[in-house]
Amino acid sequence: MSAAATAIYAPVVAVSLIASPPHLTARSWLFLVGTAVLQTGYFLFLLRAYRVGDLSGVYPIGRGSGALLAALAGIVLLGERPGPAGLVGIGLLVAGVIVLGMPARTGQALAPTAIVLALVTGIFIAAYTLWDKVAVTSVGNPPLLQGYASLVGMALVLAPFALADTGRTRLVWRRYRGQVAGAALLSPLAYILVLVAMTFTSVAAVAPAREVSVLFGVILGRRLLGEGGLARRLTGAAAIVAGIIVVTLG
């Protein structure tokens, strides 16, 4: 996906750099490299969590905890000050993550390993969100270039692993070329839009707002993968989405 996205977005980035050449300092390059490292860690832990836990459980915990940590870090580290509504929203986020991790009578609870990996994934989400917020505001990196750097970095870091198992890599490309191309187009576009939003909006608002996808993750996990515990997971995901909305409005 990273390699395909690097190729797809290369002409767009080239035109952007020619039209408006950025002034890149040593600090700018540090933040370009750093986002690649953090996002590579995010994807690796997310994929490990998916190996041992359901999509409808892992995805909301990872995204919800990431939004929560990013919002809290925005308050503590960046001096952002949400009002009472924002604090209520943060509480709903916490409640939703707890509900998703609770044991279920039907035996559909997530394995402890899956919960831990999902929470580590959330830490990486919060880390790269704050890192990129500073990059596109204080450092002045263009959002498109900041987002593109993560794609190039991931492609370079992960290439040795793909090349070490060329048979599997060819198989994935042959069977799932359409899915890879779709993800390569849409995933970077979504995050570049987030980076643009963060140039004029606080992390405490943007980070939670982008996680409304957790409800879709639960529903698709049920419909496409046959995962159980739908009612409990929908309740937890709904609490996360409610918290996201309240944080954004507050």
The class by helix and strand makeup works out as mainly alpha
Q: How many DSSP-defined strands?
A: 0
Low-pLDDT regions: none
Bulk shape: globular
Give the end-to-end Cα distance, rounded to a whole number of Å: 36 Å
Number of helices, counting only DSSP H or I runs of 4 residues or more: 10
> Roughly how much helix do the residues carry, as a percent range?
over 70%
> Biggest β-sheet, characterized?
none
Instruction: Please tell me the total number of domains.
Output: 1
Encode the helix/strand succession as letters. Answer: HHHHHHHHHH
Compute the CA-based radius of gyration. 18 Å
Instruction: Report the β-strand fraction as a percent range.
Output: under 5%
Compute the average pLDDT. 84
What features would you describe in this structure?
The protein is mainly alpha-helical and 250 residues long. The chain has one domain (2-10, 24-249). It is built from 10 helices and no strands. It is globular and about 50 Å long. The model has no long low-confidence stretch (mean pLDDT 84).
Offer a concise description of the structure:
The protein has ten helices and no strands.
Keywords:
mainly alpha, 10 helices, 250 residues
Topology of helices and strands:
Blueprint: H1 2-19, H2 26-52, H3 55-77, H4 84-101, H5 112-139, H6 143-164, H7 166-198, H8 203-209, H9 213-225, H10 230-249
Helix pairs in contact: 1-6, 1-7, 2-5, 2-6, 3-4, 3-5, 3-8, 3-9, 3-10, 4-10, 6-7, 8-10, 9-10
